[in-house]
Amino acid sequence: MKDFYYILGTDTNCSSIEIKEAYRKLSKKFHPDLNQNDKYFESRFREIQEAYEVLNDPFKRKQYDAALNKFKTGQNAHTSASEKYKATPSISNRTRMAIDIIFTIILILITCIFGDYVIKAMNAPDHSKAKQITEVITPEPIIKTKHHKKKHGLNTQIVDAIPKQISPTKPAKSDTTKIQQLQAARVETKPVKIIAVNNGFLYTTMVKANVTGIVNMREQDNLSSEIVTSIPNYSQVDVLEKGDRYYKVRYNSNTGYVPKWTLQVK
């Protein structure tokens, strides 16, 4: 249903004078003579005339107002019902939302468990050692056949079982590689040579590394301190200060702390 008040740009409680004034302005603006061959202006002008004819007549306006109010009331009722229906979710929607929430929680738990497993696996120390695989062969009895002097038949005699020589099987390729790496990393102990005391430091000696082959020099006397440099095994260092657990040393113009057990104590 067309809203004639909206077409004329007036309110529903406007007076007849206001209706005439609005019609005068709009008809002048949208008159076809001023805008020839323009379909929009022609259509708009016809709507303005139709609205003015209805609202300018008191009897027609009264009937139109009643019809317009009835139309708006029905439209508002339909809108309220639609909004109420939309606001109340159906059972299927609630079930779907619950399933989505449960699935999300399960996915988060799986992700947390997997992440914790990966972190532990990365931080776990490597205690694996290469083992030599040997094969034990069960001794088998040897059956020796002899000819009997009196009879032409064959007589069998079971002699003592002679165990076969047990030989270790060759380790797998991957195990051989690990054994070679461990053998290469194994450090043989060598005598540490202490050099006489010199000016500026206590004495000069050599470092003794573990299986890693290096000794880490740190900025402070604790394991959490940052590493200044790595000292290869049997390298000579100058001992500057002694401590309970760490000694302050100098190596290649770098100064830092190394564990006490890595040096020959004088």
Describe the overall structure.
There is one protein chain. The chain has helices at residues 4-8, 16-30, 39-56, 58-87, 91-123, 173-185; strands spanning 143-147, 154-158, 203-206, 214-218, 227-232, 236-241, 246-251, 254-259. With 266 residues, it is an alpha+beta fold. Among the domains are: 4-86, DnaJ domain (Helix Hairpins, Orthogonal Bundle), CATH 1.10.287; 203-262, Roll (SH3 type barrels), CATH 2.30.30. A 4-stranded antiparallel sheet has the order 3-6-7-8, with no helix packed on it. Strand 4 (214-218) and strand 5 (227-232) form a beta hairpin. The N and C termini lie far apart (109 Å). Residues 128-138, 147-166 and 192-197 have low confidence and may be disordered.
Which helices and strands appear, and what pairs or packs with what?
Blueprint: H1 4-8, H2 16-30, H3 39-56, H4 58-87, H5 91-123, E1 143-147, E2 154-158, H6 173-185, E3 203-206, E4 214-218, E5 227-232, E6 236-241, E7 246-251, E8 254-259
Helix pairs in contact: 2-3, 3-4
Please tag this protein with its features:
266 residues; alpha+beta; Helix Hairpins; SH3 type barrels; 4-stranded antiparallel beta sheet; two-stranded antiparallel sheet; 6 helices; 16% strand
How would you concisely characterize the structure shown here?
The chain is of the alpha+beta class and 266 residues long.
- By DSSP, the count of extended strands is 8
Computed CA radius of gyration, to the nearest angstrom: 52 Å
Share in β-strands: 15-25%
- Classify the secondary structure makeup into a structural class: alpha+beta
Number of helices: 6
Characterize the biggest β-sheet: 4 strands, antiparallel
Biggest sheet strand order reads: 3-6-7-8
**How far apart are the first and last residues' alpha carbons, in Å?**
109 Å
CATH class category label of the domain at 4-86: Mainly Alpha
What's the average pLDDT? 75
CATH-assigned fold name of the domain at 4-86: Helix Hairpins
